[in-house]
């Protein structure tokens, strides 16, 4: 299932929700607050994270190397969270939570952006997500090994750990200060520099809308994020458009570059 899901352009719409759930954990939020370049280089950081995720699924032998690189990168990430508690990025419970968020976000977003998963598909997706976790160095003992075991674990983290951290507030801010994107061809960079004062607040509102909307309801409640009935109706209308348009796109537009190359190679 991940062979199709993880490379689909709709993945881009779901990542902010997963990231926000991750940094709602005080230890993870503190690590990002203290060590990440998400404020100074959000576009580069996002591009690197997306490429890494793609390698987990489509990287072949390179997937394991990427997993080792990530663990090495996180070895030096440590400090004290907002409650005065020591944290280390590779503490099994924290590292596992970051990975675990992908499953409920995939599941929830699919209700809007695709066809809801069947029970059998949910089980398969979770099994594949566990396999990806092993690539990242997450031990089986640190992740629930079945869907039935996952939901009590997930609810326990929501009930006892998550909160509206400083980084959460920044990610869902209505008026964030975002640097002009510096990726893409020259003509695009010039266009963005000229139009960014107009585009930035609109992009920020759209990002906030998708971040909160595609997050599972129980996670929104645990973090304390508001979501209205009117916003829910807007998200459902947006989802209907996405479901109609994306499946008929040609492969070069529907799949992200790493996934597209892997799919072409698999066909020989």
TrEMBL record:
Q: Which residues form the ER-bound oxygenase mpaB/mpaB'/Rubber oxygenase catalytic domain?
A: 3-244
Q: Would the keyword tRNA processing be found if you checked this record's keyword annotation? A: no
EC numbers for this chain: 1.-.-.-
Q: Which GO terms describe its molecular function?
A: oxidoreductase activity
Q: Which domain of life is it from?
A: Bacteria
Q: Where is the signal peptide?
A: 1-26
Which UniProt keyword terms apply here?
A: Oxidoreductase, Signal
Record's PANTHER family?
Answer: BLR2777 PROTEIN, ER-BOUND OXYGENASE MPAB_MPAB'_RUBBER OXYGENASE CATALYTIC DOMAIN-CONTAINING PROTEIN
This protein is called Oxygenase MpaB family protein
